[in-house]
Amino acid sequence: MGEGTAGNIILTGFSYTGKTKVGQEVARRLGWSFVDIDEEIVRLWGKPIAEIFARDGESRFRELEREVLQRVCQEKEAVVSTGGGAIMNASNRELMMAGGVVICLEAKPATIYQRLLRDAEASDEQEVRPLLAGSDPLRRIEWLKGFRQPYYALSDWTVHTDNLTLEEAAEEVIRGWRYGGGKKRERIVLPSMADARESDAPYCEQQGAACVVTTATESYPVFVGWGFLDQLGKRMRNAGLQGRAHIVSDDRVFPLYGDRVKKILEEAGFAVDSMAVPQGERSKSFETAVSIYDWLVDRRAERGDSIVALGGGVVGDLAGFVAATFLRGLPLVQIPTSLVGMVDSAIGGKVGINHPEGKNLIGAFYQPRLVLADIQTLTTLLRRELVSGWAEVIKHAMIRDPRLLKLLEERSQELLKLEEQVTTEVVARSAAIKAGVVSEDEKELGIRIILNYGHTIAHGLEAATSYERFLHGEAVAIGMMGAAMISQQLGLLSQEVVQRQQALLQRFDLPTRCSDVDIERILRAMELDKKTGEEKVHWVLLAGVGQPVIRDDVPREVAVGVIRELLQS
Ligand SMILES: NC(=O)c1ccc[n+]([C@@H]2O[C@H](COP(=O)([O-])OP(=O)(O)OC[C@H]3O[C@@H](n4cnc5c(N)ncnc54)[C@H](O)[C@@H]3O)[C@@H](O)[C@H]2O)c1
Ligand SMILES: [Zn+2]
Fold first, then answer.
1. Which residues are paired to 279 by β-bridges?
2. Are residues 236 and 355 in the same domain?
């Protein structure tokens, strides 16, 4: 075992993967002691876990968990079974990693569900277990597990228990302890999901929202559904908005949806007026912002009036910026109508305009009061714009969600046709990934950087072509190929995943290579032109699907070589 690795076996994994039973068996075989952290907590504090959660809150529970872990991890020769959520808390995770070899017990959601049902029958318990609550427990397990998967993946060793007996699983754990420990660990991004609020999990039925964004100061729902525009009035009222609604849109979207939105809001009791700016990136300018300020002044807009941004990312960023600044902030409602808007720009509170010298140079973090995405509006979006949006969805799958990746692979044809059910599911899931990441890191100080997967080269390509040739998603698609190829060359990622990503991008008609771009201009834009760059480039790479890795030590030759390869088509 390596230096500093204490001699314990720490078991992690979802509920019903056998942590307790397998752990006891391992302890018996090795002649070690067995500790179940949850049981320790109950014993020491004299209350059931559910009660600690209900009375004192999850954060208190995590504190207790940490105290126990800290103590236990200082021991030697203990098999420690941790609660399914322990590894998602950054400091708990550090304790676990330092305290021994971390071994994850895995099981497929269907297996977990079966074990859970069997157990519920056998134990004849009156209380409905939280996992069995709701109308579709299997789906809930899938979601919750998917959410935690990136953390489980940080373990030193993983044992798939689906087809193993207790004895076999114990043997595998011991094997993992022998082989899996001691190796130097990759620096994988370690976000804290201490607050992976299970009640906020996507598809949470009680609120009807696809997901909820929770920052230090705010919390707002993201609604995603087919025909959901009709709910806008009610949703705004529920968010406590009233008075006047100032719709800001563009001259392509407003003729399509403006009257309908106006009517819906009027019926909900809002006084409504509207303004449409010219469509396109050029409207993200200081001049256009000023024209909106002028209009609001003219309309005598007051604090408490809402700004309703109806359109793609341009309108969302622009109207959001005006909302953030006018009268020191008016409530903002985002109604994204482009795919980019729905899964990316409308969520997370980055608002802003461009400066002639650079994109998005002027802006703020300003969270909306709610986001409402009506999937049906995508039916009028130009195909090229739609395709460009799929690149960000694929990005979310690659960095965070193997299951979403599978869904995209299997249902691409239906998705390209915007088939109602699957499109809604995929957009909701993708939006939830963005919501999850920004909830952890509102101001882009840490984990939010993983959303930049594919974007380092994309920005180079966009700048080198004066933002005229590529739509953003097209550049991101090529950039993701670059990032994947670099990952592969550094030995992080298998060829298979690189090819899988390429095939998926192609299935969505996205480019994976390009020609006729001046490589010197790309390198200059990426600051890779100098041999000894002072500013290190922070690359978002992949160590597998759902396993982003940040590296600032990618050799310049590797990056340049890959970019050259991308340009040979
Ligand atoms: N704030 C963020 O976090 C963030 C994230 C990603 C992108 N962005 C910004 O978003 C912008 C790109 O967003 P976008 O791709 O939505 O661009 P966009 O707003 O320009 O929309 C693309 C085109 O589609 C049209 N359109 C939008 N919805 C439509 C619909 N339902 N039917 C018909 N036409 C429709 C628009 O009028 C426009 O012509 C960029 O300015 C980018 O900087 C911001
Ligand atoms: Zn992007």
1. none
2. yes
377 lines ligand 1 (CB under 6 A): yes
Would you state the pLDDT for residue 531?
A: 61
Catalytic residue list contains 246: no
36 lines ligand 1 (CB under 6 A): no
Distance separating alpha carbons of residues 350 and 414, to the nearest angstrom = 31
What is the Å distance from ligand 1's center to 26 Cα? Answer: 55
pTM: 0.69
Check: CB of residue 324 under 8 Å from CB of residue 366.
yes
> Known catalytic residue: 184?
no
Q: Radius of gyration of the chain from Cα atoms? A: 25
Instruction: State the closest ligand 1 atom to the C-alpha of 336, by its place in the atom list counted from 1.
Output: 28
**Virtual torsion, Cα 279, 285, 291, 292, nearest 10 deg:** 80
Residue 505 falls within a domain, yes or no? yes
Question: Ligand 1: does its nearest atom lie under 6 Å from the Cβ of 81?
Answer: no
Domain housing 462? 453-567
Over the stretch 466-517, which tens digit does the pLDDT of each residue have? 999 999 999 999 999 999 999 999 999 999 999 999 999 999 999 999 999 9
How many domains does the chain fold into?
3
Do residues 223 and 351 share a domain? yes
DSSP characters for 287-331? HHHHHHHHHHHHTT--BTBEEEEEESHHHHHHHHHHHHHGGG---
Judge if the beta carbon of residue 395 lies within 6 A of ligand 1. no
How far is CA 135 from each of CA 202, 204, 205, rounded to the nearest angstrom? 14, 11, 9
SS3 104: strand
Same domain, 295 and 420: yes
Residue 411 appears among annotated catalytic residues:
no
Structure tokens at 461: 């390509």
Our answer to whether residue 238 is catalytic in this structure is no
Q: Tokens 């808007």 appear where?
A: 341
Rounded Cα distance between 95 and 72, Å, is 10
Task: Tell whether ligand 1 has an atom less than 6 A from the beta carbon of residue 145.
Answer: no
Question: β-pairing, 219-225 with 211-214?
Answer: antiparallel
- Of 438, 464, 490, the domain-final residue: 438
State the CATH number of the domain containing residue 552: 1.20.1090.10
Beta bridge partners of 272: 245
| 447 within a domain of the structure (yes/no) | no
Instruction: Output the average pLDDT for the chain.
Output: 88
Catalytic residue among 89, 262, 459, 462: 459
Known catalytic residue at 140:
no
Ligand sitting nearest the alpha carbon of 378 = 1
pLDDT tens-digit readout, 95-120: 888 888 999 999 999 899 888 888 77
pLDDT, tens digit (0-9, with 9 covering 90-100), for 142-185: 878 877 887 888 888 899 999 999 999 999 999 888 876 644 34
In a domain, 267, yes or no: yes
Torsion of CA 418, 384, 519, 545, to 10 degrees: 0
- Between the CA of 354 and the centroid of ligand 1 the distance, in Å, is 14
The CATH number linked to 411 is 3.40.50.1970
Residue finishing a domain among 371, 406, 438: 438
Q: Is 19 a catalytic residue?
A: no
CB of 340 sitting under 6 A from ligand 1 = yes
Q: Which residues pair with 311 in a beta bridge?
A: 336
